[in-house]
């Protein structure tokens, strides 16, 4: 039964969880709990006086309404940039005017005010764990369900918003790169580990910490973070068992938040449907996306373009009377022609868009069943060029229909895999994998060997 509880919701969650911890600790049995406050979400359904839109500001606790009056909105190079960025509806955005930037400034401050209560909640929970004598035997995970493109990630990697209003629905780094902070036995203090992880890894990690043997019938897609995680040896053990990619996707209309978020937006024209991939490993750090609308693509080399300002895809849009980066001569990536890299990335998206269990944990193995290839770097061997060229030509990522997800259609009210094509591992791709993906083409190896023979012969003279 629903019941209205007096007080600020974030405080109530902290109080309820504290009581649960006290009861569980006194019983001496292991316990698991999740604290998921609404903050800093917008106060939908609340009539907040200084913002009458359908996306009102976040609502802080009364005593915190006056905080952060002088706090400035971080403005990095991709905040309201002079040149257009992104694709589709984002590419069409005009620069924000002074009034719009001012509104985003206040929006940012209101989010920080609501987060002050989240800080209080965390302090309350940690103090209760300590008071009950179970803090040092408890794992605490601090994370989020999404990022947000109005704030900076940290002092070293500030993010802007590509002329966007506030929001969280894009595949830009500020929306997808979220905190994952761990505290507990076997976790090093004040240490940052650079591992490719995603939400699908949270459940396997918790189950492993709890000593639960995972039943293959559960078909978990993620990989557990292995503990202890205190030394470089622990880090490399985790690195070895993980992949180098994380899959991202979204279906629906193009939506923004804030006072100016839904001005002149047509949900039937401006869609926000994409499949994307973040790939990171030794010597590479890329983001690749494929959009339903207009067949648009994005490709960013984030080793030097951390703010995702230069789309390297051959079909990237360009300003009037100018060329895109590819047409200006930026036609290679990671020492290979850009198209060869794209062929591999597209195949990897194709695997992950409809994978299950082991297919998600070892996506490269679906393309190279012999297990020789585990990373993009290995897949870029020239001997695999023919396979990936044929794969991209015959079965690249795409859609049959671009639905906005707001009304029923003949497949589903929101989404159906039938709207996509092709479904991974159809007979064409199976044949390609069997015939050409197992190992590099022999001529590549022979050319390398003959080259050394020629050098040795030359040196013998």
Give structural attributes.
461 residues, alpha+beta, globular, disordered C terminus, Alkaline Phosphatase, subunit A
Q: What's the arrangement of secondary structure elements?
A:
Layout: H1 9-27, H2 88-91, H3 98-131, E1 140-143, H4 173-176, E2 180-183, H5 202-209, H6 232-241, E3 245-250, E4 274-281, E5 284-291, E6 297-301, E7 332-333, E8 336-337, H7 338-352, H8 358-361, H9 363-367, H10 376-379, H11 385-395, E9 398-399, E10 420-421, H12 427-436, H13 442-460
Antiparallel strand pairs: 1-2, 3-4, 4-5, 5-6, 7-8, 9-10
Helix pairs in contact: 1-3, 7-11, 11-12
Task: Outline the structure in words.
It is a single chain. With 461 residues, this protein is an alpha+beta fold. It folds into two domains: 193 residues, Alkaline Phosphatase, subunit A (3-Layer(aba) Sandwich); 218 residues, no CATH class. 32% of the residues lie in helices and 9% in strands. It contains 13 helices and ten strands. A four-stranded antiparallel β-sheet has the order 3-4-5-6, covered by helices on one side. The chain has a two-stranded antiparallel sheet with strand order 1-2. Strand 7 and strand 8 form a beta hairpin. Helix 1 packs parallel to helix 3, helix 7 crosses helix 11 and helix 11 runs antiparallel to helix 12. The longest helix has 34 residues. The protein is globular. The C terminus is likely disordered.
Summarize the structure.
The chain is an alpha+beta fold. The chain has helices spanning about 10-25, 90, 100-130, 175, 200-210, 230-240, 340-350, 360, 365, 375-380, 385-395, 425-435, 440-460, and strands spanning about 140-145, 180-185, 245-250, 275-280, 285-290, 295-300, 330-335, 335, 400, 420.
